[in-house]
């Protein structure tokens, strides 16, 4: 019997997803583990892999459709198999449970309705990627006037950028020395209308989750300053042996150091569950990544056990997928602790909001050259501030301070991080 592909649950709070595009069309073969479709969740556009091998026989939903978790989205079977879509729909609804059963029953009628091999955008809706829609809104462009270069005329980011890419005006030549300035004058212009920019699904999700976290989690904060001379020197020496696409970042060292410290402080590698603290067996460090329209957290699993170069490579690959809108479900789920680094923006110090259901997050500033006093002598030194935000129901200030001191042992003696 043919298999039904349902809208997967890609996060603990995910209720629905939007089918962005089909990677495998009706009549094409697909192997279990191959990408079947792209789905936009509250967090990102995710490449969803097929759980079955066979031929795509039916698309239940069209691109641009929002679908509840557990609802049917496709049917996969053999090439010559006789498929009764109504029977499959009834069987799928009967086999479901809980929310998935309700969603599957609601989708049974959709399965029974035949779909064309090339699903088009719904009537009246322009066929465009979510990112293209956001860029068009920000630029004040009418998508109906943009010609799409993607599959089936789909409008992509490059199409929006091509329309927006008008040549920049050249700066005016500087006035010659001694020239007198014209009298200062100002003519008020007519007030324009305020621009209303709809919140993206990602921005809405960030707002909802962070509001809940700030209101429900009793945050407290502890800051530590770190000596960075040794780490910067070791990083430079290691990178001298590595290709450009393999070089280690400061953040790679920090993620590894944090992971090793979490072995010593399991209370910070934990989640609160009712009247108990769940100390996770695996250390999976999330790294906050700035993406178009918001923020994502990609997850390095077993970061305490992986060699630094492997950890760095996996992080680079996940960050690249996140910024291209092609993250995998495993990229963004399952973190037990998060590192948020704004050092590349020359930020000296900031505090971060805990990412539920985690118990803590580390906010990292930039490495700065500052005057320091050592043995009564003022000299130049490299320093970095990091602030731990922790849930006071799970931990307290003394434990947070000891964690930051333990982190200093790895950061200020970084050779061990390369082993």
First and last CA, distance: 52 Å
Number of helices: 10
Count of discrete structural domains? 3
- The arrangement of helices and strands along the chain is EEEEEEEEHHHHHEHHEEEEHHEEEEH
CATH topology of the largest domain: Chloramphenicol Acetyltransferase
Protein architecture, described:
It is a single chain. The chain is α+β, with helices and mostly antiparallel strands and 419 residues long. It folds into three domains: 3-112, OB fold (Dihydrolipoamide Acetyltransferase, E2P) (Beta Barrel); 130-163, E3-binding domain (Dihydrolipoamide Transferase, Irregular); 215-418, 2-Layer Sandwich (Chloramphenicol Acetyltransferase). 29% of the residues lie in helices and 24% in strands. The strands form four sheets. Strands 9, 12, 13, 14, 15, 16 and 17 form a seven-stranded mixed sheet that branches. It is globular. Residues 95-110, 112-123 and 166-171 have low confidence and may be disordered.
Question: What descriptors fit this protein?
Answer:
OB fold (Dihydrolipoamide Acetyltransferase, E2P); four-stranded antiparallel β-sheet; 419 residues; Chloramphenicol Acetyltransferase; alpha+beta; 10 helices; Dihydrolipoamide Transferase
How would you briefly describe this protein structure?
It contains 10 helices and 17 strands. The chain has 419 residues and is α+β, with helices and mostly antiparallel strands.
Give the helices and strands, then pairings.
Elements: E1 3-6, E2 16-22, E3 29-30, E4 35-40, E5 45-49, E6 54-59, E7 66-68, E8 72-77, H1 85-95, H2 98-112, H3 130-139, H4 157-164, H5 201-216, E9 219-227, H6 229-239, H7 250-264, E10 270-273, E11 276-279, E12 285-291, E13 294-300, H8 308-323, H9 329-332, E14 337-341, E15 360-364, E16 368-374, E17 377-391, H10 397-412
Parallel strand pairs: 12-14, 14-15
Antiparallel strand pairs: 1-8, 2-4, 2-7, 3-6, 4-5, 6-8, 9-17, 10-11, 12-13, 15-17, 16-17
